[in-house]
Design brief:
The protein is mainly α. The protein folds into two domains: about 55 residues, no CATH class; about 240 residues, MetI-like fold. Helix content is about 70%, strand content about 5%. The protein has a two-stranded antiparallel ribbon. The radius of gyration is 25 Å and the shape is globular.
Amino acid sequence: MATEAAKQKTAARALRRGGLARGLRRDWELYLLLLLPMLFVLVFKYGSYVGLTVAFQDYKILKGTGVWTGFQNFEKVFRTRDFARSFRNTLLLNGLDLVVGFPMPILLALLLNEVRNRYFKKVSQTLLYLPHFLSWVIIGSIAYQLFSLSGIVNTVIEGAGGKAVPFLQENTHWLVSYIVIGVWQTMGWGTIVYLAAITGINPELYEAAIVDGASRFRQVLHITLPGIRATIVTLLIMNLGRVMGGSFERVYSLMNVATTEYIYTIPVQVYRWGLESGKYSQATALGLFQSIIGLALVLLSDFAAKRIGEEGLL
C-alpha cells in the first residue's frame, strides 16, 4: 500500500511538472510580461527587508554601517512626544477614512448598478474613475485653487454675501476637507471591484424576487448585498491593515503652516526623521513598528471574519 501511494504521489508530481512546462510553452509571452512586475516586487518589497536591520543599529550613513543596539531605537521612538502625536493622528485620519470612505464605493456601485441607460452609466463611471489617475500633487494644487481663502469657492461665497470658510486654513476644517477630498479621489475606482462582484450574482434570483413582488430596495437588501458580502469582508480586512499606514503624498500635498494639529502622521514623521533630520535608525524603527501593527490588524480581522463564517484572506 505504501509503495502504491508513493507511486501515485510521484505520478502526480510528474503530471504537475508536465502541466507547468506545457503552460510555459503555450503562454510564454504572458510569463515574460509577468517578469517585470515580479522583479519590481522582489527588489522594492522583499529586497528592502535587509534594510530593516538599521532599526536595531546606531546607523551612520557615511560609514555605511552601524553598531548593534538592540531595541534602544524603539525605546527612543516611544518616548518622544512626536511619536504620541503621530500615532494619534494616524489612527484618527485613517480611522475616519475607513468609516466615511469605505462604504462610499459600495453605495456608488449599488447606484450605478441600477442605472439602465448604458451611455449615461459609462460616462458616469469614466468621470468617477478619473480622480484615481491624478497624483496627489495635482489634487493638492487643485484643492488650494478651489478652497483657499482667496480660492474660487470662497470667492463665490463672498460674492453671494457670505463669509469666507477656511477649508484648508483651520485645523477642524482641514480635517473635514482632507477626508472629503480623499473620498472623492478613491470612491470611483473602488466601485470596479464591487460592480464586478455584482455581475457575478445569479440573475435568476432577481427574477424570482420580481415574481414575488419585491421592490428594488428589497432586491438590493436581500440579494445584492448578501451576494457581495464576501468581497466587502475581504476589502474591509485589507483596509484595516492600512489603518496604521496612510498616504504620505496625500498629507504632504494638503498640509500648510496654518494647520499643524493633524498633519504629523507616522509616514510624515518617518520622512522627517529619516530624510530631513538624518535619524535613519529611529525612522526605520518607527516604520517597522507601523508595519507590524498593520500586519497584526490584518491577521486579527481575518480571524474575526473566519469566526463569523467568511473565508477571509489566509
